[in-house]
Structures are given as structure tokens and as C-alpha cells.
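Lecture 7 notes: from sequence to structure.
We start with the chain below.
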Amino acid sequence: MPIQVDRPIQILSQEQFASIAFDVVGQAFVIHNELGRFFDEQVYQNALLGHFGARADTEVLIHVSHNDFRKSYRIDLLIDGGAIFELKAVQRLHEQHRQQLIHYLMLTGLDVHLYEEAVTHRFGGPERVERKVEVVRDGQVIGRQRTCLLDPATAFKITTLRKDLAAYESHLRRFLDHTGLERFLWANITLGEVSFRDVRKEN
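Predicted C-alpha cells for the same chain:
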């Protein structure tokens, strides 16, 4: 899956990143204390750009493609060609903000959601692949779980797990035990290995 970034991304040492992050966070507090909290993100971003000058790039595009699948992302702030910052003008940070930053940090690595989006696209898009599957316990329907299906009896799952694969497979089997599905086609992708497992409901 080709990934192209509009700017070269360099790998920083932990010490280099820590130094840059200290500068950026410190300046962000200076700007926030001066301007207050009621401006849009673009205002704070422009203030940071003014401070860091040529060291900073903004709205850096990431292009992801595979056959006819295309998707683009934007990095809010790139400092010294290697330190990525996602800017948020919100009252509090939520899990989706953290996930978005991790997504960008894994530009040249692996992102499970990106792979799932690509597979979903390949099989016809969310409107054809995503279905709500009934969850049954003690003969009673206790909910409906959104699941990606290849056919009415087969779901697929993509992970990037480095350990605890047996435990994860055990949970997939429990999922099957409480739904009408018969099998999970499971791909686990790490930097050194891609493994495929056909996890079937046990009779």
C-alpha cells in the first residue's frame, strides 16, 4: 500500500524529539496565555508558525493509495522535518484525538484502520460490507454489533498485534459463539510478518 508524504520525514532520536516537543509545548502555552482560548485552531497554528519560522511545515499531505483506493490526510504541524504535532483547540482531548495522532505517527509503518478501510473499499465499500450482527446470550438478543462481512456467514478482522495472539483468537471464537457467523478471516500484520488465520465456530 503506497504511502507518499509531501515532505521528507526524518527519524528523530528520543532526545531530539523531547527537545523539540519541549519547545513546541512551551510556546503553545505562551500563545494560549496571551490569546486566550476562544480562537479557532488556525489562529494558534499561525502563531506557532510565526515563532518557528523555517523550522515548521504545516498542512503536510499524506497520500495513501492501493489500486483504485485513494485517501489523503493532513499533518497539522511538522517541526524540523520529523516531529509531528496535531493541534486541537478543544476543552479536553478525547481518545479519537490520540488515535488521529498515532495514525500520523505510523505514516511509514502500519495502521490497522487504514488497512480495514482499504479492504472494505475493495469489497464494495461500507454500504456493502458493514452489517449489524445480532448478539445472542441465553437465547435472547442482547444487541447488534457492527461487523465487516465478506459474506453473510464470514467476517474479517485485521490487527497489528505483536503478542497475545492466542488470547485475541479466543475472543474471536467467543464472538462467533454469540452470533450467527461461522468464521472470521483474520490477518495480523507486523513489520516483520503477515499471518492469516481462518477462525471457525466450534461445533
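Points to note: The chain is about 35% helix and 35% strand. The beta strands are 3-5, 56-66, 69-79, 83-85, 130-137, 140-151, 154-159, 183-189, 194-200.
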